[in-house]
Design a protein that fits this description.
- Helices cover 39% and strands 21% of the residues.
- It has 6 helices and 7 strands.
- The protein has a 7-stranded mixed beta sheet, with helices on both faces.
- Strand 5 (126-128) and strand 6 (136-141) form a beta hairpin.
- Helix 3 (49-64) crosses helix 4 and helix 4 (82-100) packs across helix 5.
- The chain is globular and about 40 Å long.
Length: 171
């Protein structure tokens, strides 16, 4: 009998506001993904510890399983400067999380999200593998902080409801 391969230990980031991305996260959370909210409202109100709390909560989630940092905005949603603030929060959090966390695969949802993350981690070269489904890429990171790790990424508006499950190797 063949022993099934273990799914990789995944660290994820999503800054997409698309409804499908939110539904994909919710679907995977019901199956064990630990989403961690980064309180962007608090950050915009001047709470410098908002990013630090999210970093610590993400590291804690990763000790329990697969974790995904997801910026959350209520009061400042769709206001000028909010999108930039979300990316600033990610830029501050991502290197700290990736340098401390133990994970096999980086899972990224959102085009601007992936650009920000790869820039902050010094990633310039990827080896692409076979698409998991239309609009969902996978492969290996060749340089930067996460060199040698697997990655999967997709645009925020892309993918089936089960896309994150596929990205995490659980389907």
């Amino acid at each position: 009998a063949r022993i099934p391969a273990l799914a990789p230990h995944c660290l994820g980031f999503c800054a997409s506001a698309y409804e499908i991305a939110k539904r994909q996260i919710q679907f995977s959370a019901q199956r064990g993904l630990c989403p961690v909210q980064l309180d962007v409202d608090a950050y915009l109100d001047g709470d410098e510890d908002a990013v630090e709390r999210a970093v610590e909560q993400t590291l804690d989630a990763l000790r329990r399983g697969n974790g995904m940092l997801v910026p959350h905005v209520d009061r400042y949603s769709y206001q000028p400067g909010t999108s930039q603030a979300i990316l600033e929060c990610l830029a501050r959090a991502v290197p700290r999380i990736c340098k401390q966390a133990s994970f096999d695969r980086l899972v990224i949802v959102g085009g601007e999200t992936s650009q920000t993350i790869f820039k902050e981690l010094g990633v310039e070269h990827l080896r692409l593998g076979r698409a998991l489904e239309p609009g969902v890429a996978q492969g290996r990171i060749l340089d930067g902080v996460p060199a040698g790790k697997e990655f999967t990424l997709k645009g925020g508006s892309m993918g089936s409801l089960e896309a994150l499950e596929k990205m995490m190797g659980r389907q």
